[in-house]
Each structure stands twice: as C-alpha cells, then as structure tokens.
Amino acid sequence: MFSRTNMLHVSCRNIKLALQNGTFCTSCTSNKSYQVVVVGGGAGGCASAAKFSSKLGKGKVAVIEPSDIHYYQPMWTLVGGGMKKLENSGKPMKKVLPKKADWIKQSVVSFNPKSSKVTTDDGQEISYEYLIVALGLQLNYGQIKGLPDAFETPGVCSNYSPKYVNKTLQSLENFKAGNAIFTFPATPVKCAGAPQKAMYISEEYFCKHGKRDKANIIYNTSLPVIFGIKKYADALWKVVKERDITVNLRQNLIEVKPDTKEVIFQNLDKAEELTTFQYEMLHVTPPMSAPDPLRRCGPLVDSSGFLNVNKETLQHVDFPNIFGIGDCTNVPTSKTAAAVAGQCGVLRKNLSLVMAGKSPTHQYDGYTSCPLVTGKYNRCKYFGSLLNQRNPNEPNILDTIPELPSVVELDASPEFSEILRAVKGLKNNKSVGPDSLPSEIFNSGGYLLLQRLHLVYRKRPQRMAELQEKKLQEKCHEQNCDLYIAFIYLTKALDTVKRELLWSVLSKFGVPPKFLKALKSFHEDMHTCGTNSKPFNVEVGVKQGSGQKIDVMFDNIKAFEIKLKIFKRDVDNGTFKYFPNPKKHMTDLEIHKKTDIQSLQMQFSSFIDSTTVRL
Q1: Bond preceding residue 148 cis, omega within 30 of 0
Q2: How many CB atoms lie within 10 A of CB 356?
Q3: Domain range enclosing 203
Q4: Please, which residues have CB within 8 angstroms of residue 364's CB and are 6 or more apart in sequence?
C-alpha cells in the first residue's frame, strides 16, 4: 500500500517529468480553469493554441489531446503508395504543442456550454472563458460489417489510419490478379480527393511493376459524380477512361467478407439493390462523422452532428465564447488541411475581437484545396504535349508590321576587346550549355584561349549573344537603367509561339539573314533532359535551356535601336493593344497579363530614347 508520502512523491515525479518534456502535461492534476481551452491537437488545434498561448502567456491556454503522436495525415496517401514512410508523417505531440500551453493528455467525454466546462475521461472538469473546438473527424470503420476485423486478412487496407496504411503497400506488393477496388463512403470525409489519389497511385504502381494487365481497377463511390466540381470531374473522367478504370456511382460499401474475398455494395438510389464483387485488393475509405462526445451535445451541433458555427466568422451560432475550426465544423467547404490554414487567421482575429468585447468582423471565404495526384510516371507525355502546343495568331499580323532596313552591323565579327570583357563577366558555378563547357574554363584559360575563342567567334558571331546575356543585369545597374521583369505562364506567351512566325517578325524588324540564322541555330534540336522522364523534343516557342533565352533575344532587338513605345493593355482580355508599335507584335504572340514560368529581363540603354515597357 502507498502512504500519503509515497503518493505525493509519485505525483511530484510525474509533474517533474512533464516539465522536463517541454510541454506541461496536467493529466495528473486536479480541476483547473483556463482563459482559452482548445479541444483537439490536430492541425487546427495546434495552430490555434500556438497563437493564443503566445499572446496570453504561460498557463492561460490548455490543449486537451490524448494522442502521443501528431500525424501529418495528407502524407499517408504517399505512404500507402510506397513513396514515404509512416514514421516520416509523425512527431511527438509534446514537440508540436506550444510550450506555453498546458497539455491535458486526456479525451473530452462531454461538453457543458452553458456552464463553460468540459469533462475529460479521467473525471476532470476543465473550465474556460473561451473554447476552441478542433476535434477533427471520427473514423467509423465499424459501420461496415466485417470491419475492422477484415484488416487482419490479406488485401484489405486503408490509407486513413496509421494502423492500416502500411497494409496498402503490402497489398500492392502481394497483388497477383483480379479486382482492385477503391471505395468512397456516403458521408463527409477528410480530403475528398484522397480515395481517388490512392487509386491512381496504385494504378501507377501496377504499371511500373508489370501488373497492370492483371489488375481490374474499380472505383465504387457513393457520390452521383466522380468529383464535386464539374471542371475537375470532366478532366478526371478522361483520366479514368484513358487508364481503363471502371467507375460505379452511387455504390456504398456495406459489408466485407474476407473468408470469400467478397464485398457487398448498396445502390443508394435503389436501396434494395445489392451488388457483390470479388476482390484481390480492397482499399476502404471509412464512413466518418464528428466525434461522438461532440455529437451527443445537442446545443452545440446541427442536425448532422457537426459543430454549428457561423460559416464566415467561425463563431458558434448560440454560444459567442465558442469557436470551431477544421473538419468537426459544419462550414460548407471540403474538409482539408488547406481549409484549416484558411480558417486559422480568421478564428484568431475574430476571437481576439470577442475577447476585447467587440463583435467578430473577419470572414472566412470558404477556401480549400485538394491536390489530386493522378500519376507519377507520365511526366514525359504530359509536358511533351504542354510544351509543344501551338497558340493561334492573327493571320494578317505580318502585313501590319512595317519593313525596317536590315542592320548589317550585327553580322560583323566581335573585336578581341569585346571577347575579353564578355569572358570577364562570366560567373562560376553556373549550369553548362549544350557544349558542356563550364565558365571556369574560359575564366582560367588565359590569353591563348581568348585568342582561340576570338577566332571561333569570328566564324560564329552569334555566340556573342550568349556572353552578352551574362552582363545584362550588371550593365543595367552600372548605367542606372531601369530593369523590367515579367513572369510568363507556361501555357501562354512567347514560349508557345510558332517559331516560323517569330523568324518572319524578326526579319521585318531588320534582323539580317546571317544573324537570324544564328538565332535559329539556338533552337535546333531543342529537347528536355532530366532524371525524372525520358527526353522529348520541344518544337514550339522560345525556351530556356538548350535554346537561346528570351531575354537575350530582347537584348538583341534592343541593339537594333528600335524606338519602343508604351504598351497599352486591353484590360478585358489581358493582351496588349497598340498597333503602331513594332514591338507590339511580340505581344500579339500570346503574351498575357498573368505569368509565372520564366523572367524576361530587358535592359534599356542610353541609346534608346525615352523608352518604357510595361508587361
């Protein structure tokens, strides 16, 4: 038997260990009161606790969370596909919770919003001034007959639980032949795209390991559509058609029979209609709901059992000192970690206002995001079609361009002094070009190499453009000239223009034949290279890499001493409209107002009079 002294000693030792772990765990303390109590230690709970414990100070905020491990659950899709390890997705809870918050390592079993208290499973009553409910979703595998026991048998798996996610990869590795079935339940779920992600990644695995012809992939979803947003649903229908994946709508999993490897689905439009499938692999997305303790508290929830909050302010509709965040709320948006990120700032600002005696004014706009991986090994096909698409152009565009005299000086060979200045401007540790010669060779080659280089450039003056590029930004700074940058969408602008048209435009600008031939040579045999896909030719547009960069081309055009005029933007369609300007015809080759792939750098030297370009 323990004496009073022994029990006091044990209690003090537990508290000492909790303090040494960094986050104060009060699972062994008596009832307490806090200014803010956060129920749940997931993404929303951790973020909210961090904000308010930092603001209010130590001992003012408590987090009630029973788990020892905090998991980054979006990674589990990759874990199931063999691309990540389960241990990479978790960290000790004590390391992710804020140190200024008290960690109550218990589960909440009941809420009493009228008295501002919650009760934990060890009998503690925790009082609060303000409550943040961040409980997430509860997985209800038991609502499907035969589960969770069937997870102990071959081929049955689920990416939604750390208990079963590793079984997904095992099921893929052990797959012989037959049906690979993936399910979507008749309830809200965490990340509505994840069940399909598991299917697409599995399909890629089968392809990579020579099993695809033996796998009949089936996606049985309770929804009436393959995805809730039509734009993406249309694209996904194309994906499943191309990959020979069978999609059955309004099919809800109700039973698993592991002894016979059979599953039974119910048609939600015809409840009496049941369909039985054989399976070699079964990936289960379980029914989900708000956690039971929350659902049992009628004053806090709506008719579906989710925390009843204002969808914009995240404040409870009846209890102004209670806020909600994340999957456990009834906010009408997809339940994702991205939604939590969008809600966190709104909750912090609005709760701070309420603490100050004001009304919440900040609004959550419903933002959410669900990255949907449809494959890993088809990059070559995707980017090949993307980079070789051709944008339309005006048929009479060449007729509107005035014929300018040819600038024959551009065909002259560079002087030795120009070679010397260009080489001095080369920087080390830069990627090599098609000739595989690093800049260090030129910087260290000495006078003899420069002489040889001069002879080469006398035969091929177009190579000077590559060296001039190295000095673009430095000269701009030295001459106190403006530098303008635009960002280009991969699918738009000059990187998808027809090269033949571009050469014709440059010819009209006065580019002489020899120099134009040099520019063309930069784009011959242009192809991609890398470690993640096979190389493929790029036959459209001006690209960075083995071809000449677009900023060099603009730098050369500048040397023609063409006087540029201000572009005027047509705001309605995002293109530029100012026909008298010869440079405008570059913009007619599909330059758009939103851009994001590569920088176009244009230097305006002293010999261009009063020039301004706005991209």
Answers
A1: yes
A2: 7
A3: 141-289
A4: 311, 312, 313, 314, 331, 342, 343, 346
Q: Is 25 a catalytic residue?
A: no
* Beta bridge partners of residue 288, listed in sequence order: 139
Burial of 341 (0-12, 13-18, 19+ CB in 10 A): middle
Contact 160, 187 (CB under 8 A): no
Main-chain dihedrals φ then ψ at residue 415, nearest 5 degrees: -75, 160
pLDDT tens-digit series, residues 304-357: 999 999 999 999 999 999 999 999 999 999 999 999 999 999 999 999 999 999
Q: Can you tell me the distance from the alpha carbon of 261 to that of 177, in angstroms, rounded to the nearest whole number?
A: 13
191, 328, 344, 476: the catalytic one is 191
Packing angle between helix 513-521 and helix 499-508, nearest 10 degrees?
150
Domain boundary among 289, 311, 342: 289
- Residue 15's alpha-carbon distances to 19, 30, 33, 94, in angstroms, are 6, 12, 18, 14
User: Is the dihedral angle over the CA atoms 551, 553, 554, 560 positive or is it negative?
Assistant: positive
Regarding whether 285 and 160 lie in a shared domain, the answer is yes
Radius of gyration of the chain (CA): 32
User: Tell me, what's the pLDDT at 152?
Assistant: 97
Angle (CA) 610 612 614, round 5°? 170
Which one of 289, 315, 345 terminates a domain? Answer: 289
Q: What is the pLDDT of residues 131-164, one digit of tens each?
A: 999 999 999 999 999 999 999 999 999 999 999 9
Q: With a cut of 70, which residues of the chain have pLDDT below it?
A: 1-30, 375-395, 397, 410-411, 431-436, 456-497, 527-536, 542-615
Q: Is residue 390 part of a domain?
A: yes
Cα distance between the two ends of the chain:
82
d(C-alpha 336, C-alpha 49), whole Å: 19
Number of structural domains the chain divides into: 3
Do 263 and 253 contact (CB within 8 A), yes or no? yes
Whether 436 is in a domain gets the answer no
Q: Which one of the listed residues 157, 344, 370, 476 is annotated catalytic?
A: 370
529 given a catalytic annotation: no
Q: Is residue 432 part of a domain?
A: no
Q: How many CB atoms lie within 10 A of CB 91?
A: 13
| Token pair for 304 | 């579906």
What type of residue is 551?
D
Assess if residue 575 is contained within a domain.
yes
Tokens of 19: 């303090």
Tell me, yes or no, whether 133 and 150 share the same domain. Answer: no
Q: Give residue for tokens 């600008």.
A: 509
* Pair 476, 596 in one domain: yes
pTM strictly above 0.70: no
